[in-house]
Amino acid sequence: MTVAVSADSIVASEVRPEDLEQYRRQLTGYCYRMLGSVFEADDAVQETMVRAWRNLDGFEGRSSPRSWLYRIATNVCLDMLRGRQRRALAMDFGPAGSPESFTGDQRPEHTWVSPMPDARGLPDDSDPAELAASRETIRLAFITALQHLPARQRAVLLLREVLRWQASEVAELLDTSVASVNSALQRARATLAARNVDREHEAVVGVGQQELLARYVDAFERYDITSLVSLLHGDAVMSMPPYDFWLRGPVDMGRWFLGQGSGCRGSRLVATAANGCTAFGSYRSDGQGGHRPWSIQVIEVAGDRIVGHHNFLDTTLFTVFGLPARL
User: Fold this and answer.
1) What residues pair up with 61 in beta bridges, in sequence order?
2) Contact criterion met (CB below 8 Å) for 280 and 270
3) pLDDT for 220-260, tens place per residue?
4) Over the range 92-118, which residues count as b (16 or more CB within 10 Å of their CB) and which as e?
5) CA 212, 218, 221, 226 torsion: positive or negative?
6) Residues 200-219: what's their mean pLDDT?
7) How far apart are CA 203 and CA 123, in angstroms?
8) In this predicted structure, what is the pLDDT of residue 4?
9) Average of per-residue pLDDT across 181-200
10) Is 39 exposed, middle or buried (0-12, 13-18, 19+ CB in 10 A)?
11) N or C, fewer C-beta in 10 Å, the chain?
12) Distance between the two ends of the chain, CA-based, in angstroms?
C-alpha cells in the first residue's frame, strides 16, 4: 500500500527542487499582497526559489519546507520594499475629477497597485469558505490598504490573519519576540480600520450577480451607455491607471464614455477573474476587422449594482492573464 506523505513532513535529506514547486502559487499570492504588483510578485517568487535551490543542501529540517520558503520569501519582499514608495490606486492621490478635468497626466508603473489573476494568486484546492476568505484578502481595496503598513507589519498581518500562522511561528520567521509580533499586529489592524477597508462587495457567484455582469457585457459591447450607467451604483468609481484621474458616479462616468472615452465604442470583452472579482480583457477595434488589447477591467459588485470599474491600461498584463494577443 502506498502512503501519501505531506511535503511539510519531508526531512531535510529528502527535499528536492521539485518538492518546492508545489508552493509557487501560494507564495505568489503572499508576495503579491506584500508588494502590490503581479510583476514584482513573480520576481520575488522566482528569487525565493533560486535562493532555496542554491541553499537546499543547507536546509536542516528544523522547520517544514513551507515555513523555510516563507522565511526566504518574506526576506526577499522586505529587501524589495526597502526605501520604496508605496503603490496605490488613483483614489488615493486626490479627489474625483470630471470628464472635463482629464489632462492625460500619468504616473509611472511603480506607483500603481496592479491586478492579480485569481488563477495565479488564489488557492485552487480550498473549500468554498476558505476560497471566499482568500478572495477578500486579495481584493484591490485590501491590497491598496496593505501598502499603508510598514513592511514588517504587513508581513505580520498577512502571516497571522491571512495564512493563520501562530504568533510563535511568525516570531521565529521574523527573528523577533511573540510580544513584538502581537504589538505589530495590533498596530496593523488599527491602520486598516482607519483606512475603512470593510466596504461590502461580493465575489460574483450568485445568479443575480452573473446576470448583472452579462447585462454589463451586452451594454458595453453594444456601447449602449444609457443601459450601462443604469447598472452602476450611485457612488460607483472608475479609475484608469496609469492616468492620474478617476471619476465617481453614473453621470460623470456616462459623460466620459460618450466623450473622451468614446474610443471604446466597438470594443469586445473576454472574461477572466482578478482580485476575487469578475474581470475582462477589453479589446478595442483595430480598424481592420480585428481587436487589439486595451485594458484589463476589474469589476466590483455590491448587491445588484457595479461599484468599481477599474481599467488597467498596461497591455503587458494580457500575457499575465493568459489572454489572446489579438481578437
Assistant:
1) none
2) yes
3) 999 999 999 999 999 999 999 999 999 999 999 999 999 99
4) beeebbebeebeeeeeeeebbbbbbbb
5) negative
6) 77
7) 15
8) 35
9) 84
10) middle
11) N
12) 51
Q: What is the CA radius of gyration of the chain?
A: 21
Q: Is 73 exposed, middle or buried (0-12, 13-18, 19+ CB in 10 A)?
A: buried
Burial of 67 (0-12, 13-18, 19+ CB in 10 A): middle
Closest alpha carbon to 17 in 67, 61, 65, 63: 65
Cα three-residue angle 107-213-323, rounded to 5 degrees: 55
Strand order in the sheet with 277-285: 246-248, 232-239, 305-312, 291-302, 277-285, 268-274
At 198, which amino acid appears? Answer: D
- Tell me 117's DSSP state: B
- C-beta atoms surrounding 314 within 10 Å: 18
Omega of the bond leading into 242 within 30 degrees of 0 (cis): yes
* Amino acid at site 54: R
The counts of H helices and E strands in the chain are 14, 6
Quick check: 264 pLDDT over 60? Answer: yes
Least confident of 59-63, 80-84, 97-101, 320-324: 59-63
Going by C-beta distance under 8 Å and a sequence separation of 6 or more, which residues neighbour residue 280? 217, 269, 270, 271, 272, 296, 297, 299
Report the candidate in 26, 114, 17 with the shortest Cα–Cα distance to residue 70.
26
Query: Which residues are paired to 237 by β-bridges?
Result: 248, 308
Please give the pLDDT value at position 62: 61
Task: Write down the mean pLDDT value for the chain.
Answer: 89
Q: Is the pLDDT of residue 142 over 90?
A: yes
Identify the bridge partners of residue 298 per DSSP, sorted by sequence position.
279, 310
- Give me the domains of the chain, ranges plus CATH numbers: 7-195 (1.20.140.160), 207-320 (3.10.450.50)
What percent of the chain has a predicted confidence (pLDDT) above 90? 75
Tens digit of each residue's pLDDT (9 = 90 or more) over 297-306 = 999 999 899 9
